[in-house]
Amino acid sequence: MLAFGERLALPLKVHALSKDGGVCLVYLRGDLGVGKTTLVKGIVKKLGYAGAVTSPTYTLVETYPIDRLNVFHFDLYRLRSAEELEFLGVRDMLSPPVLALIEWPENGVGVLPPADYVVEIETWKLG
Length: 127
Fold this sequence. Notes:
By secondary structure, the chain is an alpha/beta fold. The protein has helices at about 1-15, 35-45, 85-90, 90-95, and strands at about 25-30, 60-65, 70-75, 100-105, 115-120. It has a five-stranded mixed beta sheet with strand order 2-3-4-1-5, covered by helices on one side. A hairpin with a 2-residue loop joins β2 and β3. The two termini are about 25 Å apart. About 30% of the residues are buried.
């Protein structure tokens, strides 16, 4: 997952810094424990963030300012209603240039804008 995140980092940054809006929303879907946060760690580290990359499970959002780009990692697992995003100021956070990586986006339906990209992670067993 770290390596996959590293491979996604540059194309996502280019999209977020584009002249066509400057916002890149990535929805991350998958069961608990499949590696969504690890994927985000790979992206954020590859973009040049030197500090710790932590899960926003309890804070709902972590912010990583990288050069001219604000990277937000949302974990909406514990969100009780999409309207809580309004109280967090999500609309202000999504002003360009921004890359938003959103776990459990289905909990933000009605408030979150549509995704530019959706990454679906599944686990499977052989045999």
